[in-house]
Amino acid sequence: MGRNKRPVTKNFSSRTKHLCAELMRLCGPQTDVNNKLEHFQDLHKITTELCELQRVSLPVTYSTVAYFSDHEFVLLDGFPAADVILNVYRNICRQYAYLYLLFEQMGQRELLPAYMRTFCFEDYRWAISTVMSRNNALPSSGGDEKFLFLVPLWDMINHKLGQVTTDYDPVTEHILFYAMETYQPGDEIFMDYGKRTSTEFLIYNGFVPEMNPYHKVPIKLSLSKFDSLVVLRKQVLEKLGIET
């Protein structure tokens, strides 16, 4: 989903399992805690190592609009997608600047939650990219309106052209996901993200599919007032339901 990750090795998985097993032992109901400080230090040592290990499972950076370089934007300049992408990037910049200045005006930064005291753009664009590349619209309970949600695990599945195999059960309020092809144990599971243009894939997921039958490009056409048939052309367009 447009994310770049550090490599995850078998050593990472086995070490994590070992540390979790040790936590289960130390936190078990039969564990006799005689020295509270020593017990806390043991737990803290393990959780600290877990935090260091598990950072590699998170995206280090993204290939979304928020991370575009000057060179990457130059490649898009001249295409219709450039206008859309620039507007998205401007919105990200404006949102960050607004929130940063708002926090500054509040004063007494020590009263703010720890995560708001150091509000840097690097963290903000990482968070924005995480949400942009993973959010999904789901129906609200008892209504037709849809809201955006982050769905753990399901939102980590990568795209492959096929058919949409995800459904929503309003009774149980569960997402129902079906495999669109046969898989063997150990295979990566894919899903079709739906009918998106290549521009939408680039903006919200950070990649462009090699094959995309749903891609389309907006073209702006104008009528010249010096055209002797301009009135007739407008009438034809109006009958076709096309605004001029």
TrEMBL record:
Q: Name one GO molecular function term.
A: protein-L-histidine N-tele-methyltransferase activity
UniProt cross-references to InterPro entries, sorted A to Z: SET_dom (IPR001214), SET_dom_sf (IPR046341), SETD3 (IPR025785), SETD3_SETD6_MTase (IPR050600)
Q: Name one GO biological process term.
A: methylation
Q: What is its EC number?
A: 2.1.1.85
The residue ranges of the SET domain are: 106-194
UniProt keyword terms in alphabetical order: Methyltransferase, S-adenosyl-L-methionine, Transferase
* PROSITE patterns xrefs: SAM_MT85_SETD3
According to UniProt, the reaction catalysed is:
L-histidyl-[protein] + S-adenosyl-L-methionine = N(tele)-methyl-L-histidyl-[protein] + S-adenosyl-L-homocysteine + H(+)
Q: Which family does it belong to?
A: Belongs to the class V-like SAM-binding methyltransferase superfamily. SETD3 actin-histidine methyltransferase family.
The protein, known as: protein-histidine N-methyltransferase
